[in-house]
Amino acid sequence: MQLMPSLQVKQKQSLVMTPQLQQAIKLLQMTNLDIAAFLQEQALDNPFIEFDADNQAAAEAGATPSGDAGDDRSGKTDAVTENSSLDRDMTEGAAIADDPTAHADVENRYESAALDYGREQRGRPADTDWDALANLAETGPESLVEFVLRQIDLTIFDPADRVIAYALAEALEPTGWLGRPLSDIAAVCGCSEAEVEAVLNTVQRLEPEGVFARDLAECLRIQARERGLLDDVMIVVLDHLDLLANGDLQQLARRAGATIEDIAAALKLIREMNPKPGEAYEAAPLRVHAPDVIVTAGPDGWVVDLNRSTLPSLTINETYAAAVTNGRKNKAEDAASQFAADSLGSARWLRRALDQRNSTTLKIAGEIIRQQADFLTDGLSALKPLALKDVAEAVGMHESTVSRVTSGLLLATPKGCFPLKSLFSVSLATDEGDSKAAAAVRNMIEAIIAGEPAGKPYSDDAIAGMVSEKGVKLARRTVAKYRDMLKIPSSSERRRRARLEMAV
Predict the structure, then answer these.
(1) CA-based torsion, 184, 186, 187, 192: positive or negative
(2) Do the beta carbons of residue 471 and residue 431 sit within 8 Å?
(3) Pairing relation of β-strands 410-413 and 416-419?
């Protein structure tokens, strides 16, 4: 057998994504606030970009309202785009993961390094020397550790004890409980565990009541002691919280040598205590995420529009661009002119990409609202089954594109604010042969449990039967799954809680 060299030619297709297309895909997943931070960063690097975060003009935002979401005009925009591969790639759902040349996982979500301090900073005079961190320290709420340290400085004067107290304060959890064992703190401070225990007894008398506790029983015991409620019955109840959790008041009464009424009175006092005393100090103000899409009632149906108050605009300084690009004769040999040309091209591409993002967002949001119009009128019970595929086919885009657009956007409706993704729901079969959204079924289960007789909770089997009577086929394990999603305890737990309520 003779070996002969040969040449084989194979032809295959692969998608190689450009950095611009990757950025365009990331823009689809950004909220309005993310885009503001991103443009803020780009304006620092590109001299042709003029960034206005507070612009309200619809023409500069790159999209128009979708109009009546109840008719065929839903999601149509007049955004101007060029006939480039950008539109096609975004429609077909090109993804970073589709790049066969990638050898590392790429986070398909934009994380900007730029800080957006919001309208308050942008409203400050330009010549004001404003330090964001210093301002936060001056105006922010006092933390639990700061509050405790201030008390330690006023109550503990021995230098060695103060060092131990500082170490205990650093070990506090947000709940107010001690998060490290005393042996570790003793090792850090170079002292004995008995010395740490002595200082612990001191700092446990600080405010808030129950701080520096090592478990729930100790937290409640500290509060009872500070309030003068630590009698014999209370001590027994706190030593046997497991019996209290099981609702075994008879056993507690026998161990305490008291009556059921005495145990019920102790239980009432315990409910007035705070099992997590530190949360009131550690909780920071929630940062409200402004909605990205707004739905309002129009004369002919629902109108879908982008939130102009948070949507930034990007404009290009064409006067400066013309002066820079026309001011030099030998452009090919001039590095400055080449930089200007590249920056101008990047700015114009970014504006087109933002226009495409806005129009795509409106188109998809308009179609979702068109299909879920009954939800805006009748509430959660009218939510229809809806999948990514249904919306993708209606708007002529890939499912991955729909998923990216709906993953992080917040929708403001007359029924409240919802993540756009929450309007998707799987379908459940009914006796009539049609389907019902799983979210609507969960709402049905929640309503059934809310209306159950006091002290006689319905079992999962009984709830499944009630739902089936309404035409929805549902198994017991499905009821249990939906009940867990709603954070509703089991029937036995609800019965135990009702028994404790009646005892009090």
Answers:
(1) negative
(2) yes
(3) antiparallel
Instruction: Decide: 219 and 177 in contact? Cβ < 8 Å.
Output: yes
Give how far Cα 208 sits from Cα of 203, 382, 493, Å: 11, 47, 31
pLDDT band at 203 (very low <50, low <70, confident <90, very high): very high
**Cβ neighbour number for residue 474 with a 10 Å cutoff:** 22
Burial 244-278 (b: 16+ CB within 10 A, else e): beebbbeebbebbebeeebbbbbbebbeebbebbb
CA 367 to CA 30: how far, in whole Å? 19
What domains are there in the chain, each with its CATH number? 19-102+289-413 (no CATH), 144-281 (no CATH), 426-503 (1.10.10.60)
Beta pairing class for 67-68 and 293-298: unpaired
Closest CA to 79 of 90, 66, 68: 66
Are the C-beta atoms of residues 144 and 168 closer than 8 Å to each other? no
Taking each helix axis from N to C terminus, what angle separates 144-155 and 193-203, rounded to the nearest 10 degrees? 100
Amino acid in position 437: A
Task: Look at the alpha carbons of 325, 331, 335, 339 in this order and tell me if their dihedral is positive or negative.
Answer: positive
Q: Which residues of 90-101 are buried (b: 16+ CB within 10 A; e: fewer)?
A: bbebbbeeebee
The encoded tokens of residue 67 equal: 């109009």
Nearest to 196 by CA among 180, 216, 215, 219: 180
Residues 484, 446: Cα–Cα separation, whole Å: 11
Give the strand pairing for 67-68 and 301-306: antiparallel
pLDDT digits (tens, 9 = 90+) for 295-347: 888 888 888 888 888 887 788 877 777 777 665 555 455 677 777 788 888 88
Q: What angle is formed at CA 403 by the lines to CA 354 and CA 35, rounded to 5 degrees?
A: 30
> What pLDDT, in 10s, does the model give residues 243-260?
887 778 888 888 888 888
DSSP bridge partners of 472: 430
Beta pairing partners, 294: 305, 412
Nearest to 350 by CA among 15, 24, 14: 24
Mean pLDDT value of segment 230-249? 85
d(CA 89, CA 80): 17
Q: What distance in Å separates the CA atoms of residue 262 and residue 256, rounded to the nearest whole number?
A: 9
